[in-house]
Every structure is written in structure tokens, then in C-alpha cells.
Write a structure and sequence with these properties.
Mean pLDDT: 85
Order of helices and strands: HHHHHHHHH
Distance between the termini: 24 Å
Shape: elongated
Number of domains: 1
Strand content: under 5%
Low-confidence stretches: none
Length: 216
């Protein structure tokens, strides 16, 4: 199932390259919007990078279950004996490896483009590494709720963006709190870890329940 999801993800939505290119476009547009002040860009860089990561993660989320619904595979999955929650978690892991992980790896280079201070680069990478799985897991709930809708991709951001606000708040706080002592980094980072663990436990259950309800 995991290998199948990786192959489908690479064919549908462009895989890792589309998310990174979208991330790059948003980061490139930021200096044109706020001006060439490097000090200002350095202050807003954590927020802009996290917002860019959130929007890039949305790419392809509407197809998380849509492709299986269109070809009838979802009905077979629902009737099978395998745990639906585990299948949802497998799909989320494949999606994160194709979209979230490339964003984490590319974030230091985009941080340099926004004049992010070097002592905050590690906090940015760690916050994205811990927080982006929560974005994917929360997005899976919205994808499950809209899987049977013809224009569900338009409704998906409206459903999940409010749920992503806590992750965004503490992710930006952790990314901007890195410094020589790290005292401002630890509290929001630990809360971000807790949010990701909560999403890891709750999101597959919620998404599986939505898929079962859709099939009735």
C-alpha cells in the first residue's frame, strides 16, 4: 500500500517538485510585496516560510482519497479486512514524504533568500520537520469529508485552514525563537510536538470515520 501511494502521488499532483516550486514562488514574491529591507525580511521570514509550507502542503491533498474513489478502489478498501485507520495513516505518510519532507529540506535555502539569521535556521528546519506532518494529518480529515464531492478541492482549504491555525502559531513561534540559548524555542516547539502527536492519534480515526460515513 505504501509503495502504491508513492507511485500514485508521483503521477498525480507532480510529486515533490510541484510543492517545492510552489514554495519557491511564494518566497520569491515576498520581497516584491514588502520591499527589499533585509531586516524586515529577516523578521517576517519564519511566518512567510510557514505560511508557504502550509499552502504548499495543500497541493494534492484533495487527491488523497479522490483517485481511489473514482476508480472504485476505495470501496474495496472499505470492504476489506485491513484497518482503515492504518490505511489512512499510510496514505498520509506517503503524502508527507512527497510534499512535506522536500519542503523541510529546501527550507534553509529559502530562509537565506529571505535573509533569515543563521542562528534561527536550525529552529526553522526543526519546527517544519515536526509541524508539517500535523498539517498533512489534519488535511486528511478534510480530504475524507470532501471525497464524494465533485468540487471538493475548493471546499477542502475552507475546512482545514481553521484547524491548522494552532500548528501555524506555534510553528512560527518556534521557528522565530531559535537563538544562542534556545530559551524562546523550547516551549512552542514542545507544544508543536504535542499537536503533531495529537494529530497522529486523532486524525486517522476521524478520517476513517468520515470515509465510513460517506460509504453508507
Amino acid at each position: 500500500m505504501f509503495r502504491r501511494e508513492l507511485r500514485i502521488g508521483q503521477r498525480i499532483g507532480g510529486g515533490a517538485s510541484l510543492g517545492v516550486v510552489f514554495f519557491l514562488i511564494l518566497v520569491t514574491l515576498t520581497p516584491f510585496a514588502v520591499g527589499p529591507d533585509l531586516a524586515l525580511l529577516g523578521r517576517i521570514a519564519p511566518a512567510m516560510l510557514w505560511i508557504s509550507a502550509l499552502l504548499a502542503t495543500l497541493l494534492g491533498l484533495d487527491r488523497l482519497f479522490q483517485a481511489d474513489h473514482e476508480d472504485g478502489s476505495l470501496d474495496l478498501i472499505l470492504m476489506g479486512k485491513a484497518s482503515l485507520e492504518l490505511i489512512v495513516l499510510t496514505k498520509c505518510l506517503a503524502h508527507w514524504l512527497l510534499t512535506g519532507l522536500p519542503l523541510v529540506l529546501a527550507s534553509p535555502f529559502f530562509g537565506l533568500m529571505l535573509a533569515l539569521p543563521g542562528n534561527r535556521m536550525w529552529s526553522l528546519v526543526l519546527s517544519l520537520l515536526v509541524g508539517t506532518p500535523a498539517l498533512t494529518l489534519i488535511g486528511a480529515i478534510g480530504a475524507a469529508l470532501t471525497v464524494s464531492l465533485r468540487r471538493g478541492g475548493l471546499l477542502l482549504p475552507v475546512l482545514i485552514l481553521p484547524l491548522c491555525i494552532p500548528v501555524l502559531i506555534f510553528g512560527v513561534a518556534a521557528a522565530g525563537g531559535g537563538g544562542s540559548d534556545g530559551a524562546a524555542f523550547a516551549p512552542p516547539f514542545l507544544i508543536l510536538c504535542a499537536l503533531s502527536l495529537l494529530a497522529l492519534v486523532g486524525a486517522p480515526v476521524a478520517a476513517a470515520a468520515a470515509l465510513r460515513q460517506m460509504s453508507q
